Amino acid sequence: MSTEQVLNRALGAYLGFACGDALGATVEFMTPKQIQKRYGVHQDIIGGGWLGLEAGQVTDDTQMSLAIGQAIIDHQGWNIQAVADNFVAWLESDPPDIGNTCRRGIMRYRDSGELFGLPRDDDAGNGACMRNLPVVLATLNRLDYFNEWSLQQSHITHNNPLSNAATLTLGHIVNHLINGHDMAACIQEAERLISQYSEFSYNPYSGKASGYIVDTVQTVLHYFFGTDSFESCLIATVNQGGDADTTGALVGMLAGAKYGVQQIPERWLTQLDQQLVAQIRQQTTGLIRLAGLL
Q1: What is the pLDDT of residues 130-167, one digit of tens each?
Q2: Residue 118, burial from CB neighbour count under 10 angstroms (0-12, 13-18, 19+)
Q3: Are 103 and 82 in contact (CB under 8 A)?
Q4: In the chain, what is the straight-line distance between the N-terminal and C-terminal CA atoms, in Å?
Q5: DSSP of 214-259, one letter per residue?
Q6: Domains parsed from the chain with CATH numbers
Q7: How many angstroms separate the CA atoms of 82 and 87, rounded?
Q8: Backbone angles phi, psi at 160, to 5 degrees
Q9: What is the pTM of this model?
């Protein structure tokens, strides 16, 4: 893989993630039937939704990812306290949305300085998995760091075996895709996860797309492996409704890493907040450089 190809796929993953977030936010918490009735097929970044977003605005998924990415770049490596501090600054910036588990974990750190919570059954949401892409990019050729950094950032808010396993698995899949490995390697990662935790099995697909990490991962893998282009993958996923900003972001990350940035529809990229696009481009380059690939 040339440096150019790696950068192209890494940028595809990060911008694809943001597109999925912005596209999915419009239909978050809606059912497929409600989406169909209101939009036919929802396929344009138009804002709105229950958060009343501007077209091209993103949610906590992308904002928390950028918080992690910035901490890594600012410290030229891993500093878990800097990550947590960035989460606090983000929490206090009055974001459009923040999940209860994320809020609880960030406030615990802010108030007590504790960087991780004890394992909890009700930490099995998708909030840790959704923000881990900057860790993947910074450790593209350092898998020994990947697990440690991923779990540390996860445990600020989510300390649960299902959340841990999903975060690592999707990260490994993105790593394979950016490094140009074939789909067999990706399917093997999914199968490894299912052999460890059978509830992640997505065949047959249950049709649930909630914020529960199992539903999220089933939805993402079902549509990622079952489609053949970036656009069809993202549209099919967000039209499933549910936690559509996060399923959209995660599937956009995988599809962007697979198909490259040039496969992301121009209408989506131009509709995204352009300051955000510039920030993502800057972080992607900085994180890839840190991984020793630039």
Answers
A1: 999 999 999 999 999 999 999 999 999 999 999 999 99
A2: exposed
A3: no
A4: 12
A5: HHHHHHHHHHHHT-SSHHHHHHHHHTT-SSHHHHHHHHHHHHHHHH
A6: 3-290 (1.10.4080.10)
A7: 9
A8: -150, 135
A9: 0.98
